[in-house]
Design brief:
Helices cover about 85% and strands about 0% of the residues. It has 7 helices and no strands. Helix 1 runs antiparallel to helix 2, helix 2 packs antiparallel against helix 3 and helix 3 packs across helix 4. The two termini are about 30 Å apart.
Length: about 190
């Protein structure tokens, strides 16, 4: 298909369905003995949430004919709004509440607390206590790796991705270079 915004929206929709399915599977396996599968499904669900935001950002940005600073800012701010609405929808599906304030608190307002509690405390606990006290070191290392990967993606990368995308696109600039006919012929000769 030649319609780039539609392609990106289709990928975002597929990532939405995948994220919901993986989260549901992780909830089903939460109290079972398959703890690894629970962590793997949570990690994959967080990666799908990251993919949703990326595809939404690129879809909104590609709607504009010219890549201007306005398109970058509109795409970034829309992605922030959609991330809050997406978390609100996931809260509604899995916890029964649709609360935009709770979702914005979890994503953006408590980001420093989440980084402290869900990333730094997990690292300190593992290297301070678990690593030396665990009898099954390999098992605890796999659990730590899956947990810290999921927490970094869910609590750092997902909230900060729109800001990273805006910053990256503003640094790249909005000018597009068009080759003249002579330059294009020279380039074609170099390829041969």
């Amino acid at each position: 298909m030649k319609n780039k915004p539609l392609n990106h929206l289709i990928f975002a929709l597929l990532a939405c369905f995948t994220s919901i399915g993986l989260t549901a599977l992780s909830i089903l396996l939460k109290n079972s003995e398959r703890y690894y599968l629970n962590l793997i499904f949570l990690l994959l669900s967080s990666m799908m949430d990251l993919g949703i935001l990326f595809f939404i950002y690129t879809a909104i940005k590609s709607i504009f004919k010219k890549h201007s600073e306005l398109s970058i800012w509109v795409a970034g701010l829309s992605t922030i709004l959609i991330s809050i609405l997406w978390l609100s929808f996931k809260l509604y599906v899995f916890e029964g509440i649709f609360d935009v304030l709770e979702a914005s608190y979890r994503l953006y307002l408590s980001i420093l607390d989440r980084i402290n509690y869900d990333v730094f405390d997990v690292i300190v606990t593992y290297f301070g206590i678990t690593l030396f006290a665990a009898t099954d070191v390999i098992n605890q290392m796999v659990i730590f790796t899956l947990t810290i990967s999921r927490n970094v993606i869910a609590f750092i990368l997902v909230p900060l991705l729109p800001g990273f995308m805006i910053f990256r696109d503003l640094l790249n600039g909005t000018e597009e270079y068009k080759f003249t006919k002579e330059e294009k012929e020279d380039f074609d000769e170099l390829k041969l």
